[in-house]
Specification:
alpha/beta, TIM Barrel, 2 domains, binds glutamine, binds zinc ion
Length: 766
């Protein structure tokens, strides 16, 4: 009897109807009680466990559920609670204070949140644990143990999920100041006993398997991190009476960390064979006879239906090499990163739906694959369906557009270059625009007020007729232009009132994109995103923004910037097709945008901004792969923007504050003007641009748009003057850090008036 196990590494926790989001937000706004929130959470857990049980999952994850974030849960579990939160007595209030800050006017409580950052190369964000120089730990396993008790009623093979100690420390940071060169890894010896105690408690509960997530095993590790792994894994493996341990790696290949993982003394190793299929042979070859392999074959990062035949072939290979009893089938990583259930999609169409699998469907795929492990030629219905869907998708005219193929083949070197190099262009642009020194502008969006959002909602619902909606948007745009003129800005924008989201807006107008109704994925805490699905060749049936930009331009003599989202950002914030390289999809998007850029120019728009806020987050996890990625990312931007005349000014915008290691690529993008976020790092990062001698024009953000605070003219003038001392004043622009859509009009007007004043002050100095 074959006994390949069907397993799961983690399940989405937001709920099919985003129940968790709603429960969290109503608790935070004090509309409901903590008990209500806990009840909702418990209901979701119960539902997810029984779903997995029904799907026939043999190893059901427990403890992966979180009210906010699993890394924060781990910090709380090991007692890594920074001193400033310890005065908060209620554990739940303290937990959310760490996650999102706490401001209680009555009690004089005002603590900011811990830092938050991207979880590897996903769009999920985790809370960064903060350790003190005299950090001690104390185990509080109540959350995990409580959930195990709850789950016991489900009666499945429960597999608690722990974030492993080394990844936990590698993701942590030291508190500010007085830490004397200590790094979090220095606390490994104190941290390991928490895990040892926990394993003993889990053994007492009769737990058979524990999953220890160590995604950092897929990164390039220095010697210190490797040594930490050796210590941690050996010590955990040596725990007396412990449950069996599965070491979970995901998001990439183990590569030179394979010996560490295989030599860990653990009972199973999970590998990501979606991201890194080529590692299978090496993994099977390295596995000691005592170790199981967990084959991550169902994509936990994307929404496509699994090619069951290909996955089956991989399982057969493993079974033949090491025997069925040592093989498990699994998703490539936790299913946290995919939407909950395809069954809720009514509008996608049956063809499209037959190509997709969300979390619920992926569980079934895992089970089917495990069941078929003993068969050489599986022929059950699920395999027949998978084959049919695959054949249909491969041959579908929805996917391939010969016109796009032709254009892709027609791409030549010349399409990546502007006519003249920057200095010549700059001269022509100066002559054309005659802008003052320190020209002032904004990043694109202006406040999306309640009125704007509700007009959009009624238009979407069909209750606001299209001409009325149009009229409303034009009125908003007109008022926005008038306000910008009154403030005295030099270069204007139309305000982006017609856009809900900077990717969705374009995706909806491009061919090759589909939209789900309920394909929500957690981004952080209660925040969810609904990425578009890029399923086919991308093309642009009609102009997308020309009408808005030209309308705005008719209202003013000052230049109005056209406003587009860049190809890498559109790619990065979508679910991307898996039947061609990502870079090909990116170039297709770039070709479509190129047409838009050229159309804007022809319609009389003189400056065009192509936002690329996501270029940095697309960087591969391993540095070795950066160069290749940056090559095609830069190429895509250039392809999109190089079709215009020398005197048309191309802008770009990026909102992050780490540039040092990718500045060369940013310079190669060759935008005439780049606006960047700097105000939060007090313009320190301009240093990078100075060191690199960034050649083109640059607008360092002079105020933080993330806060309603109105910056003074003096502080912004100071920033500009200090920028003018390190970079040529003739190449500096004045703008906020990012778009203003989340702000209110009064503060925006006040802040921009001060900004314009600050530019005047700076002009007098140079
Ligand atoms: N033009 C966009 C806006 O102003 C840019 C947003 C972004 O950088 N994320 O909203
Ligand atoms: Zn931005």
């Amino acid at each position: 009897m074959m006994s390949v196990l069907a397993t799961c590494l983690g399940y989405p926790r937001i709920g099919f109807e985003r129940e968790l989001k709603k429960a969290l937000e109503s608790f935070w706004s004090k509309k409901t009680s903590a008990a209500d929130l806990q009840q909702c959470a418990a209901g979701l857990r119960r539902r997810h466990w029984s779903l997995m049980k029904q799907a026939g999952i043999d190893h059901i994850p427990v403890g992966d559920f979180s009210l906010y974030d699993q890394v924060l849960d781990t910090a709380v579990m090991v007692g890594a609670i920074p001193a400033r939160y310890r005065a908060i007595k209620d554990p739940l209030v303290r937990y959310f204070a760490m996650a999102r800050g706490l401001q209680e006017s009555g009690e004089g409580m005002d603590v900011p949140a811990l830092e938050m950052t991207k979880w590897f190369d996903t769009n999920y964000h985790y809370i960064v644990p903060e350790l003190a120089s005299k950090q001690t730990f104390a185990l509080n396993a109540s959350k995990l143990l409580g959930e195990i008790d709850e789950a016991e009623t489900t009666g499945g093979g429960l597999r608690p999920v722990l974030l492993g100690p080394v990844t936990f420390l590698l993701l942590s940071k030291m508190e500010q100041g007085k830490t004397k060169g200590l790094t979090p890894l220095a606390f490994l010896d104190q941290l390991i006993p928490m895990y040892e105690q926990l394993l003993a408690l889990l053994a007492e509960k009769g737990i058979q398997w524990v999953q220890i997530d160590e995604p950092c095993l897929t990164l390039e590790l220095d010697d210190q991190a490797k040594a930490a792994y050796r210590t941690a894994l050996t010590r955990l493996a040596a725990c007396p009476g412990r449950p069996r341990l599965l070491l979970a790696s995901y998001f990439g290949a183990l590569e030179d960390n394979l010996p560490l993982a295989a030599g860990s003394g653990f009972d199973a190793l999970h590998v990501d064979l979606v991201r890194a299929p080529d590692q299978l042979d090496a993994v099977l070859g390295a596995l000691p006879a005592t170790m199981h392999v967990s084959l991550g074959l169902v994509d936990g990062r994307n929404i496509w239906r699994t090619d069951l035949d290909a996955a089956h072939a991989t399982i057969r290979k493993a079974v033949e090499m090491i025997g069925p009893d040592r093989v498990m089938v699994a998703p490539s990583c936790s299913l946290l990163h995919v939407p909950v259930d395809l069954a809720g999609e009514q509008k996608l169409g049956s063809t499209m739906k037959s190509w997709l699998a969300f979390a619920a469907q992926k569980l079934n795929e895992v089970r089917v694959l495990a069941d078929a492990a003993g068969s050489l030629t599986p022929s059950g219905q699920p395999f027949l369906d998978s084959r049919a869907a695959r054949a249909n998708r491969l041959a579908s005219p929805m996917v391939r557009n010969s016109h796009v193929g032709e254009r892709m083949r027609g791409i030549t070197e010349a399409l990546f270059r502007r006519t003249s190099p920057f200095p010549a262009r700059a001269e022509r642009q100066r002559a054309r625009f005659r802008l003052p020194l320190f020209p002032t502008t904004t990043i694109g969006s202006f406040p999306q007020t309640g009125a704007v959002r509700s007009a959009r909602a009624t238009w979407r619902a069909g209750t606001l007729p299209v001409p009325d909606y149009d009229k409303f948007l034009k009125e908003e745009t007109r008022a926005c232009i008038a306000k910008q003129e009154a403030i005295g800005l030099d270069v204007l924008v139309h305000g982006e009132f017609e856009r809900n989201d900077m990717v969705e807006y374009f995706g909806e107008q491009l061919d090759g994109f589909a939209f789900t109704e309920n394909g929500w994925v957690q981004s952080y805490g209660s925040r969810c995103v609904k990425p578009p699905v890029i399923f086919g060749d991308v093309s642009r049936p009609c102009a997308m923004t020309v009408e808005w930009s030209t309308y705005a331009q008719t209202l003013t003599k000052r230049p109005v910037k056209g406003m587009l989202t860049g190809p890498v950002t559109i790619l990065q914030w979508s679910f991307v097709r898996d039947d061609q390289p990502r870079q090909d999809t990116c170039l297709q998007i770039a070709l479509a945008l190129r047409e838009e850029v050229v159309d804007l120019e022809q319609a009389g728009i003189k400056m065009i901004q192509v936002d690329e806020p996501a270029i940095r987050e697309g960087l591969p996890l391993r540095r070795r792969e950066w160069k290749d990625y940056l090559r095609w990312a830069v190429d895509a931007f250039k392809l999109a923007t190089s079709g215009v005349r020398d005197d048309t000014q191309v802008h770009t915008h990026m909102c992050y504050s780490e540039f040092g290691d990718i500045l060369e690529a940013i310079a190669e993008m060759d935008a005439d003007v780049i606006s960047i976020e700097t105000s939060r790092s007090r313009m320190e990062l301009l240093g990078d641009f100075v060191r690199y001698q960034y050649p083109n024009e640059i607008g360092p953000g002079v105020y933080d748009i993330h806060s309603p605070r109105v910056p003074t003219k003096e502080e912004m003038a100071d920033l500009l003057i200090s920028a003018g001392k390190v970079l040529p004043a003739t190449r500096l622009w004045v703008n906020p850090d990012c778009g203003l859509k989340t702000r209110g009009w009064p503060e925006v007007q006040a802040a921009l008036r001060n900004m314009v004043e600050a530019a005047r002050v700076a002009r007098r100095q140079f």
